[in-house]
Specification:
alpha+beta, Rossmann fold, five-stranded antiparallel β-sheet, 9 helices, 32% strand
């Protein structure tokens, strides 16, 4: 079984904490993506799982056994790195075959296993070439085949598509997803690219400063971010967030007050929330002549299939509105108002930065009005 589990895992390098009390479980045959900015601890977590680093505390399980202290070669895992790490003097066939040869697999069995792995990634016509004769995408396929041929319980992938150009990255993403489903294996995949995470993962585990922020399916992470970090990190353009102050009639933002139902204000006061942050995705905002929150259009970015309308609030905060290309755009420099369906609002505690589910997006209760009275 390809189950993986971290239980209270911490990794320190001197006084620096790279991974802080990480607890998560990866199900058998799941494609789990570890996502976060550089330095968030995702690669360190993967290296501990591979046995390349030992945790300072906590336990790591692969299958039904604890692997703390177990050598990498005995963990039944295969790792694909950002750098292809191919032997330049060996042919594609010999590169793929190398892990089997080092384990003394008989020659006839090696040939059959190498042929099967090469077919899985479409390398049949390239088997006698050297790495220097291959494109970046072909080299990455060789690295994948070398991992596949070992038939491990778990595949570990550390930003394997980073060296590919944009078009090839899209193609290889789809091929990796198909391959994982065909092999019915467990994959733990590290990336800083949220598009890779959203399109490839069954679930995403988002990390920041060594700590796990949220773990959920991609759509849930996008629709219900657990805190402000996740809200601002997931999405391109990211979620607009505006800090406000809880007042008698609602939440006061720069230029206006977002009215809130009395029961919501009561709940905020009961929790001792004085400052709140309202969040809304760019695609959920409208630019209109009237509304509560005034803004000024500063820049309009046309992307062909859509445009981004960049606005400034009265205090200078930047807000981005995503518009379809067939919508009539405002003019740059125009004074406008921003509105949205109240069901699309998110609310966060300004002090703790945690999500507040008090009748805003997805909670099913009464919602704040941003679109005027």
């Amino acid at each position: 079984m390809g189950r993986v589990a971290f239980h209270g895992v911490t990794k320190r390098f001197g006084d620096a904490v790279a991974v802080d009390d990480l607890t998560l479980e990866v199900e058998d045959q799941e494609f789990l993506v570890l996502l976060g900015p550089s330095g968030c601890g995702k690669t360190t977590a993967l290296r501990m799982l591979a046995g390349l680093e030992e945790p300072t505390s906590g336990t790591i399980e692969i299958g039904s056994r604890v692997v703390n202290g177990v050598e990498p070669k005995l963990r039944d895992i295969a790792m694909v790195f950002q750098s292809y790490a191919l032997y330049p003097h060996m042919s594609v066939r010999r590169n793929i075959e190398f892990p089997l040869k080092s384990r003394h697999v008989p020659a006839a069995e090696r040939r059959a296993m190498v042929d099967e792995a090469s077919r899985a990634v479409g390398l049949e016509e390239l088997m006698e070439r050297k790495p220097g004769q291959l494109s970046g995408g072909q080299r990455q396929r060789v690295a994948l085949a070398r991992a596949i041929v070992r038939r491990p319980q778990v595949f570990l992938m550390d930003e394997p598509l980073s060296n590919l150009d944009a078009k090839l990255r899209v193609q290889t993403r789809a091929e990796l997803i198909e391959l994982q489903r065909r092999l019915a294996t467990t994959v733990v995949y590290v990336t800083h690219d949220q598009v890779e995470a959203m399109t490839m993962g069954d679930r995403i585990a988002i990390m920041n400063a060594g700590r796990l922020q949220q773990i959920a399916p991609p759509q849930e992470v996008y629709a219900r971010p657990a805190n402000l970090f996740v809200a601002r990190f997931i999405g391109n353009p990211p979620m607009n967030t505006v800090a406000g102050r809880v007042v008698d009639t609602g939440i006061e933002l720069p230029g206006g007050i977002v009215p809130c139902p009395p029961e919501m204000l009561e709940a905020l006061r009961a929790r001792g929330v004085e400052g709140a942050v309202i969040g809304v995705r760019p695609e959920h905002l409208l630019v209109e002549a009237e509304g509560i929150v005034p803004a000024t259009v500063t820049v309009i970015e046309s992307l062909g299939h859509e445009r981004h309308v960049v606005c400034r609030l009265v205090d200078g905060q930047m807000i981005i509105v995503r518009q379809a290309s067939d919508v009539t755009p405002p003019t740059e420099g125009a004074a406008v108002h921003l509105t949205t369906d109240p069901a699309n609002l998110h609310l966060f505690d300004a002090q703790t930065e945690e999500r507040l589910d008090l009748g805003l997006v997805g909670a099913g209760g009464p919602a704040a009005e941003l679109a005027g009275s």
